[in-house]
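ok trying this again, last paste got cut off
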Amino acid sequence: MTAIMLANKLFTVPQWYFLILFSFAIFAASHALPTHSLSPRANPSSTVPPTGALIVRQKNPLPGEHPTIPDAIRALRGTKGPQTIFVYPGSYNLGVYIRYGYPLTIQGYTAAPGTYAQNQVTVSVATGRAETGGDPQSSAIWVQQNDFKMSNINVVNSYGTGTNTQAVAVTAQGERHVYSMCSFSSYQDTLYVKSPSAYFIGCNIEGAVDFIFGGGTGWFEKANIVVKPPRSFATITAHKRAQASSTSKFVFNLSNVIGAPGAKPGSAFLGRPWSAYAAVTFQFCSLSDVVNPAGWAAWNPPQDTRTQSVQFYEFANKGPGSQGLRSFGKSPVQPAKIEQVLGVNYASWAL
């Protein structure tokens, strides 16, 4: 006996009443309020500029559009409120400095917003700290503002692979930054995290020397970390936390660490301490054999190790790179939680 037949038998309620309830349930489900999701498909369209967006089009820009991203940034002067910059496909060989007093979103054109692998927008430079006078100044993109989001943009600094070749792809400076499905590539000092609250989701990050560094706080979700062949050995992170009271840290969650072609097994360390209280965690990650069995490296041994007070943690990782007798890394009792790292209200700005 069906549920409707049983209901009619027991309560003598006509079938049309249940049909109305069923129809209402379908209507309510189809009009339910959306919930937060980690999927970048929840973002505005990645192929059509949202209404009111500033548009960057490298080839044959239409009236009112901009040929470069810096042109669009300059057009923000005098405006107020949240803004979006939509960038059409192209290789933009010009550094970008971003500073705006309100929330800003930069969306790169792509038909596949759920992956960095099909990004069609690339920002590239070939500038190093040696010629610009500072790490941020060498950046292909330097963000110096609060409430910033960037999706589906490739950023490359191809300065060089010799000695003293600090050359930043992205400097993230300011509170509440979100980088979704982006790719950052350099050799030394690829990603400079100065932000106290930066969230990276599904990003590809490539380099060889201290290529994720800084004194800020970053949560890296489902990142792809690619180690390029180093001159001697590679170091993925170089976290800077000078005070024991500081809460800054890097956390890599559900991420992959692999070697680029030519990178030898055991040639990379998960990190080294830029300052005495550096804090880095790799948890639930897949570590390939490019990771050295010692796991972590001192800063400049033997005279300057900076290892006595570091917080280098690994939790529930897998793969050949997760095996070995760690030098001074530890296993925490439990994994890091994102709300403890980015704040209890992180979902209001990160998701």
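PB: full thing came through this time. The two ends are 46 Å apart (CA to CA).
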